Amino acid sequence: MKYGYFDDKKREYVINNPRTPWPWINYLGNEDFFSLISNSAGGYTFYKDAKFRRITRYRYNNVPMDSGGKYFYINDGDCVWSPGWKPCKTELDTYECRHGMNYTNIKGEKNGIIANVLYFVPLKTWAEVQRLTLTNNSKKTKKLKVFSFTEWCLWNAASDMENFQRNFSTGEVEIEGSVIYHKTEYKERRDHYAYYSVNVPVQGYDTDRESFFGLYNGFDEPQVVAEGKPGNTVAHGWSPIASHYIEVELKPGESKDFIFILGYVENKQDEKWESKNIINKKKAKETIARFNSVSKVDAALADLRNYWDNLLSIYTVDSGDEKVDRMVNIWNQYQCMITFCFSRSASFFESGIGRGMGFRDSNQDLTGFVHQIPERARERIIDIASTQFPDGGCYHQYQPLNKRGNNDIGGGFNDDPLWLILGTVSYIKETGDFGILDEKVPFDNDISVARSLFDHLTVSFDHVVNNLGPHGLPLIGRADWNDCLNLNCFSNDPNESFQTTENKTEGSKAESVMIAGLFVVYGRDYIDLCKKLGKNKEAERAQKLVDTMVDVIKKYGWDGEWFIRAYDYYGHKIGSNENEESKIFIESQGWCTMAGIGKEEGLCTKALNAVKERLDSKYGIVLNNPAFTKYYIEYGEISSYPAGYKENAGVFCHNNPWIMIGETVVGNGNRAWEYYKKICPSYLEDISELHKTEPYVYAQMVAGKDAFKPGEAKNSWLTGTASWNFYAVTQFMLGIRPEYDGLLIDPCIPTDWKGFKAVRKFRGAVYEIEVVNPYGKSKGIKEVVIDGQKYGSNLIPVYKSGTIHKVKIVIG
Length: 812
Ligand code: BGC
Prior knowledge:
With 812 residues, the chain is α+β, with helices and mostly antiparallel strands. The strands form twelve sheets. Strands 1-2-9-10-11-12-19-16-15-14 form a ten-stranded antiparallel β-sheet, covered by helices on one side. Strands 6, 7, 8, 13, 17 and 18 form a six-stranded antiparallel β-sheet that branches. Strands 22-39-40-44-41-42 form a six-stranded mixed β-sheet. Beta-D-glucopyranose is lined by residues 344, 358, 360-361, 481-484, 647.
């Protein structure tokens, strides 16, 4: 069953049934100021950091789901309704929600009145614009009472949810004209406030939540809305809100626009006040003035659209399959921007208070985003590297507001350092900017011990080398990519975390074959980089270490039919035929085949066949099989999950592309694409009822074959799945891959594809690429023609910025 459709021309997903199987959301803003918004206008807003600067309140896991947001209530005599259906849930005559590129438009119609709300955050603006357009489609003049609504959060989203003995006494607001200011804690240590305005005179307002709703009412029936009369309340403590009250008269056929601005201001210490206890409103007023007319809002929206036109023109494909095209050209790239902005912090599954920016996550996210705005990727790389420790280890996460490593989680995840090589190399290959390697980057944010970014890569590489176990494989630490494979944790206490509890690394033999594969892949990247820089000695040193690791994997990481996953604390195999449960895991098959380990001897093909046979399912490749059915204290969190969920045999979509890339290494385009389609959201639109999450973005996990409901997705939006799928499909399957010295074109497509076309902007030049497949092959280059001339290589040179080149590739 579908709940809407793709409007590819407008780059929108159009939801026409508000009862989606889960809130289907969108993100507004892409730099500093952000909102999450669901298809029924639920969600919240924050500045930079969803934990420390939460502007509006949201209650996760509420009843009903997704309660609280940016609501409008319309009282039309005997009927009260909301344009997004919720919160009133009055049956609408028509409903439509269009989620686009950083904007959402929600339209409801009831008894001849159409209410259209456009929500977006204009570029370079610390505010969300909401343009409400009311149209009278009936034959009578209508007198409407309109109430806006938003609920302030007391800034720190964590304490906002727990410290009520304080919170209920701190809330403060100011009201001036049609602007409601939220200034809780401004008089002491905070130098920021928020505001909510409308560009017309109001006939009333409310800022005290209980007066607005009535103590015993929910979002669906605010007392003042039902009574059609605002309370004109001024909040003192308790829970401040902002609601404007506007009386609107509309003649038949008449339309009126109202522009609401929800914004955030920071003031310098000595500019905080206008007069005693009256906040300095200058900046708020400036922002409000920038958007106080429909034409200004239209212009700001046009700017946002142009911005996205631009970003999405850098890589486009015409594959002949609209489901592929809409993901590659629109939604997958959009999701990559979102994951770049938020890492794993704020979604409808990530509460914004738990995790900041992940070290490994953010590096991987970069790979799907770097072609869009390389300068931002550059800045991010430096931020991430600044949280590294001098020995190459690193904080697992950092907070976006202060960019400091997060002490709650600490470090010790031994895959983390290697991802910095991926992030940095992806950036240099895209831009050719080797200069980044000379940047002086602190360790643990301590500038006095800053060294070049290149040195950070060296210590990343060496962190693996310096932490090898008894077989010569990398020690796993708290966990590797799989956060839940906690081989040194041994936790019997439900009150402790699997990751951060005492780590029994002393004497541990726990080694990871996945990190070993990762080391070979990114170790080779490191070697290539050294060679490019003329650091031949270092390249030689690294080469020896990588070669040794390849041998070690073949010797101790191969199980006969596939790669084993790890060795546990005691040195016993995990992910081996010898094991009773979880005989095979996806991660080591992915990394060792991407690294081409034992390709000549047929190991890669064997491993990939084992994946097909044991891990593949109708809804994607599961992480391990058979699932764990009991808790293994020596394996940690992974075995705590019921079978078929998350890291215990769920389809963990993040790692499916590793296998897709592995399949391209052995040239099996049919399989790579078969796997791609199984988890690609646009192919799942018809089963939305089962799939549950948005059909326009990837989810982290789809319940696996052992689960109660295979095919049901969870954790949409913020997942490495976005960048890995984009990376796999664009660089290895369509095969258009930035390299230091050009654009490598090496497609691996299904044998029944006749070819495809793509346009890639690369270092300022435009490459118009046509791939033809006259012999029904998957991979291999028979001929390359550039601008009408045969060319001897599929590494297409870097051209002068501004030039356009036609590249034809014949597969064969
Ligand atoms: C985390 C990743 C981790 C993955 C697998 C995700 O939730 O953000 O860092 O690699 O789970 O455990």
